[in-house]
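Progress narrative, work stream C.
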Amino acid sequence: VQLVESGGGLVQAGGSLRLSCAASGSTNSIIAMGWYRQAPGKQRELVATITKGGGTTRYADSVKGRFTISRDNAKNTMYLQMNSLKPEDTAVYYCNADRGFREPSWGQGTQVTVSS
């Protein structure tokens, strides 16, 4: 499975961005997808996940109420709507595909920078 993120950029605090992750290849093997982020000098952390059917979502406490994860299976695309952005949200955001017993897939990452 190949994953390509887009939608990152520079935004002022309080602003919004929408990230997209387009999947291609053996997409039928995907059972869940998620967004992770990694800030400079920090470990990669979970931001949000969503099951294949989209019925179950999970969020990091730090983004609850501000970020919304969704997916369009017809387009093989996942989204992350980010509102009320804070400087601490600055990071490289990565798309992840959970393929069960298979090796997970990762995108190349997209930079999100929030200025104060």
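Work stream C, second folded protein:
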Amino acid sequence: QVQLVESGGGLVQPGGSLRLSCAASGRNPGIYIMSWYRQAPGEQRELVANTSSKSTHIADSVKGRFTVSVSKNLIKNTVTLEMDNLKPEDTAKYYCHARHPNLPAMESWGQGVQVTVSS
């Protein structure tokens, strides 16, 4: 498994931008499928974006506003979520997730970072 350290988040006005980063370290972090989820109070956790060596997926609710990128080296895999034109409905706790592509039981969650969009 890998260990995840998240950074970023905070309070921003509608229309503003934020960047979230998640660094995965441990054994072979570069092979993991990296994802960002979010969960608003009273709502289910939903997938925002994920990326692997083969593809990148962005949820329809944020497509055109959010982008995801990944930077890899031998010891660390960092996935960044760039969020532009933020809306109040983007307010949620955002979680980083890593999953081994061939061993579904090998997964890790970050502690989550709060994103609040409000004027």
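The chain has no helices and eleven strands. No further action is required on this item.
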